[in-house]
């Protein structure tokens, strides 16, 4: 009898074990590929799905239509470097290693992402993903521990540093750890191979190669469009060349801009839209689109559109632009597609930010974040239409310390507070009804200001290289 009972127990245990293994394998198979597409200095209002009516972005708009649009998604910072660091680490600017662009540190020396930081790529490696970044990294100015291959990426093609990424005909880029030459390119003459084309070619080839492997992939596709310099091959301006648009004449200096700003800017955005479409077509070609989460966004607000003479309305209903902590500087376009998981043609007003993406991919892949000190909250429920299950932020925090700084901003619920540290001044906005931040109501609600200032002061840890003190422009030539 005991022997029979033992056999039954063994059989049952084996059955449970097999079922568990089968479920584990099923989860492995169901882990989606992740394609994260991020543009550089594209404004919230520069895409059709957010109201743009001059620049054509049909493929991006189609992506948005096939998935969900977040109307309250925020970048990590109002400039590139810290925004990308926030995205990669899941920590906002009060806790992130990189809190300013290169040379805006106290010492004037660049601060890179640290070896102790845990990136999205490192997390996804734990989940069995192949990982790649193509385009602008910008978190390894010192070319040391911040390099992508040291931060969880199996493959890298692009720019480690910021300044080389300012040009569209670079003479060299990195392929993994090796700086390689681009044959025929002459940067100052704007001759050779257009870097946006090369990024697209690399992305398509990477997807084709990695799709042959029996593992999911994470591809971080970081185009430099439409960051200055503004330039594009002349034949690609055909869409806008004959428009009856006023001439905004661009000058050349460090940025080797084409002369006609409006035409060039619009052409660059439409051209990268086309190229994004080519990458998405490869997913269809390989029949992997259904199990691929595609995210589209921008690293911060626009720089091109003049606030005193807006032409494209690049910030939508927001105020300000790049380098502002007003909505125009930090609120960015966001669309995501994941067939069968995300309902098409949907929108969400969930308030989210770059530091939420790391915990989101962790939840998608069944991981707990390695660092329990992250600031992000998974927005997977909002993505998949489960708004009732979506956890909400207590607050969102930013700081900025270039020429306009030091500045701090806090969004909590309906309210947004801006603190101008050097001037000892605050502004308060009811952001849900005044997204243009026109009505400063600080004097009417002093108690709300005090409440938010307490949170603001507690939201950050000190950083020896990024104190909230006034600093001069390190890039300005001394006489």
Automatic annotation (TrEMBL):
<keyword id="KW-0106">Calcium</keyword>
<dbReference type="GO" id="GO:0046872">
    <property type="term" value="F:metal ion binding"/>
</dbReference>
<protein>
    <submittedName>
        <fullName>Arylsulfatase</fullName>
    </submittedName>
</protein>
<dbReference type="InterPro" id="IPR000917">
    <property type="entry name" value="Sulfatase_N"/>
</dbReference>
<feature type="domain" description="Sulfatase N-terminal">
    <location>
        <begin position="32"/>
        <end position="366"/>
    </location>
</feature>
<dbReference type="InterPro" id="IPR050738">
    <property type="entry name" value="Sulfatase"/>
</dbReference>
<dbReference type="InterPro" id="IPR024607">
    <property type="entry name" value="Sulfatase_CS"/>
</dbReference>
<dbReference type="InterPro" id="IPR017850">
    <property type="entry name" value="Alkaline_phosphatase_core_sf"/>
</dbReference>
<dbReference type="Pfam" id="PF00884">
    <property type="entry name" value="Sulfatase"/>
</dbReference>
<keyword id="KW-0378">Hydrolase</keyword>
<keyword id="KW-0479">Metal-binding</keyword>
<dbReference type="GO" id="GO:0004065">
    <property type="term" value="F:arylsulfatase activity"/>
</dbReference>
<comment type="similarity">
    <text>Belongs to the sulfatase family.</text>
</comment>
């Amino acid at each position: 009898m005991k022997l029979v009972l033992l056999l039954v127990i063994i059989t049952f245990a084996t059955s449970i074990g097999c079922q568990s293994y089968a479920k584990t394998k099923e989860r492995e198979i169901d882990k989606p590929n992740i394609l994260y597409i991020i543009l550089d200095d594209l404004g919230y209002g520069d895409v059709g799905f957010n109201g743009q009516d001059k620049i054509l972005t049909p493929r991006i708009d189609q992506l948005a239509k096939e998935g969900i649009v977040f109307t309250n998604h925020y970048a990590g910072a109002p400039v590139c470097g810290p925004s990308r660091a926030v995205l990669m680490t899941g920590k906002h600017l009060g806790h992130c290693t990189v809190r300013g662009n290169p040379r805006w540190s106290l010492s004037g020396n660049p601060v890179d992402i640290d070896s102790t930081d845990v990136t999205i790529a490192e997390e996804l490696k734990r989940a069995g993903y192949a990982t790649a970044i193509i385009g602008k990294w910008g978190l390894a100015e010192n070319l040391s521990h911040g390099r992508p291959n040291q931060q969880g990426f199996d493959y890298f093609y692009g720019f480690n540093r910021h300044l080389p990424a300012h040009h569209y005909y670079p003479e060299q880029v990195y392929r993994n750890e090796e700086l390689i030459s681009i044959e025929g390119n002459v940067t100052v003459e704007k001759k050779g191979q257009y870097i946006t084309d090369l990024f697209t070619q690399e992305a398509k080839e990477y997807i084709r190669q990695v799709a042959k492997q029996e593992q999911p992939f994470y591809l971080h596709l970081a185009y430099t469009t439409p960051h200055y310099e503004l330039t594009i091959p002349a034949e690609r301006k055909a869409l806008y060349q004959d428009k009856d648009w006023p001439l905004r004449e661009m000058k050349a200096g460090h940025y080797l801009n084409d002369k006609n700003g409006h035409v060039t800017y619009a052409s660059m955005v439409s051209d990268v839209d086309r190229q994004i479409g080519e990458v998405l077509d490869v997913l269809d070609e390989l029949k992997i689109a259904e199990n691929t989460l595609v995210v589209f966004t921008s690293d911060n607000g626009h720089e091109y559109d003049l606030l005193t003479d807006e032409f494209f309305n690049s910030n939508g209903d927001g105020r300000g632009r790049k380098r502002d902590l007003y909505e125009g500087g930090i609120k960015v376009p966001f669309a995501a597609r994941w067939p069968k998981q995300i309902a098409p043609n949907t929108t969400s007003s969930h308030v989210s930010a770059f530091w939420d993406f790391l915990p989101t991919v962790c939840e998608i892949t069944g991981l707990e974040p390695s660092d329990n000190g992250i600031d992000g909250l998974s927005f997977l429920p909002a993505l998949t239409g489960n708004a009732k299950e979506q956890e909400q932020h207590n607050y969102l925090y930013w700081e900025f310390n270039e020429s306009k700084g030091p500045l701090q901003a806090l969004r909590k619920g309906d309210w947004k507070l801006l603190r101008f540290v050097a001037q000892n001044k605050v502004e308060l906005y009811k952001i849900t009804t005044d997204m243009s931040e026109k009505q400063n109501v600080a004097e009417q609600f002093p108690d709300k200001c005090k409440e938010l200032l307490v949170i603001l002061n507690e939201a950050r840890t000190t950083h020896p290289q990024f104190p909230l003190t006034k600093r001069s422009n390190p890039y300005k030539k001394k006489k």
